[in-house]
Amino acid sequence: MGIRTAMQVMPPGGAGESADSGGASGVFVTPQSLTFPGAAVLVSFLLRLASVPFQHADTSFWWALGISFVIGVIIYLFSLNDKMTRSDKVKAAVVAILNILVLTGTALGVGSLTTNVPVST
Predict the structure, then answer these.
(1) Looking at residue 18, what is its pLDDT?
(2) 49 and 103 housed in the same domain
(3) Which helix (H) or strand (E) holds 104?
């Protein structure tokens, strides 16, 4: 077993497909792995990473909103398909906006939003 095989995840069907058949995916961030928990961790990580060159970015509402917006738009764009009607796309956009706001709150910490702890702007 080589390192390439060790870094692959088997598809939901199990071991029926080989790693070389294209059914496996890398274990890093993929569009399919950007579910809410994955996106929340990614936003928190990027926010913390941004605080290295930009002091206090990890507690800034605007930084959190900006990073959440980028991740939210990426998830929204990956969710679109040709079979969706215009109405479906508008509904998905509204849900995406709500998800962006929730990701922002999650990145800043729910406690800071519910306990009136000041968040820098």
Answers:
(1) 47
(2) yes
(3) helix 86-108
Is the same domain home to 16 and 71? no
Q: Give dist(CA 57, CA 69) in Å, integer.
A: 15
Q: Token match 């508008």: residue? A: 90
pTM over 0.90: no
pLDDT at 26: 53
Q: Where are the beta strands (DSSP E) in the chain?
A: 8-9, 25-26
CA distance 72 to 103: 8
Q: Do residues 63 and 90 both lie within one domain?
A: yes
Q: Which two tokens stand for residue 34?
A: 């950007």
Both tokens assigned to 58: 């990890």
84 contact partners, CB below 8 Å, separation of at least 6: 92
- Domain tally, the chain: 2
Residue 119 lies in a domain: no
Q: Containing domain of residue 96, as a range?
A: 34-114
DSSP single-letter state for residue 23: -
Q: Which residues sit opposite 56 in a β-bridge?
A: none
